[in-house]
Amino acid sequence: MNFTETAWKVFNQSIEDYHVFDDVNALINNPFEKDSLERILYAKNWIDTVQWHLEDIIRDENIDPAEALQLKRTIDASNQKRTDLVEFIDSWFLTKFENITPKPDAKINTETPAWAVDRLSILALKVYHMSLEANRESASEEHRANCQAKLDVLLNQKEDLSTSINQLLTDIESGNVKMKVYKQMKMYNDDSLNPILYQKGQQK
Fold first, then answer.
1. Euclidean distance between CA atoms 67 and 71, whole angstroms
2. Where are the domains of the chain?
């Protein structure tokens, strides 16, 4: 089983496990061995799955404004956890390939392996939920047909993205691509970088 096959299987297990209770407050019960890549991938997708449903909830037009504000802050915190975990996955890959010497003409990819894996995790959620819509008995035949067409595109995208990720990992391992990682430097959660937050602090 290649890397993306493993990742896809783990992502779908996380999604299925979440939907047993379908509760954004449910506690994660990660079934994989400590320090294993599978455990990291499961945790990554669990964050994505919870955030997917938080994004659904906050779009309720009748939501209480105070609840919406709290949800927005929860989503912001989730985004930070997601970014931190993606960077942790890249650190895992850096360690895996630390003894690889890139060739003199090695290229640099536009995104790191972990950010490509992030897209695969989100894609697993899109496939899961689009499949539900394509088979929802309460929906119209037209709705189901439209969703099936979209699902077909998503599944094709999954094959292309999986191939690209596997090729990237092979190219890094062979020295044809140099793995280089940059921190995301998110500013909006930082009291010292977000002007709304630090100006408020100066007014006290």
1. 6
2. 3-203
